[in-house]
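User: Show me a protein chain along with its predicted structure.
Assistant: Here is one chain, sequence first, then structure tokens.
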Amino acid sequence: MAPPARLNQTGARPALGALKPTPVDDFQRRRQRSTRISWIIALALLPAALFAMPTAILFTIGMIPTMVALVIDRDPEKYAAVTVGSLNFCGVMPAAISLWQSGHTIDRATTLLLGPFNLLWILLGAAAGWLVYFAVPPLVSMTIGIKAKAEIERLGKRQQELIQEWGEAVMTLDDGLAGVPHPPARPVPGAHQN
């Protein structure tokens, strides 16, 4: 069954293609797509988790800071989860490599997870992700502001040079350029002269 058609302000059905998605519709569509993708990933990882149970345990527990970031991040693009997740993954990888090299067992995975240095690397990775998430945007904003101020100063100096060269008339916003001397028109070579 097709959804009911929306009516325009006059009560008539709008022309085909005239309906634009509202921000709410777009947000719901992205959320549904994100949920579908999450289910596909979960169903694809389930057999892999059963095959490599110690690695699955290590990553499930080690990536808890990423899951927290995913839950608390209200941004639809989930920038916090991506940033924290990337660096949290880097913090879990030394333990995972050690697990793969020294025996892929559940006992070894739990031993690695309870080791203080492995926990330190995991949490430092997540903390570095949060630091990047909170520190980089203000730094970028400050850099853009400094560049903008420098450009304003440069343009102000150029404006003063133009005022000295052409006079105060270059500061007016007159559309007809009244009072501004125009350079003489140059004849175009090959054009018919009257």
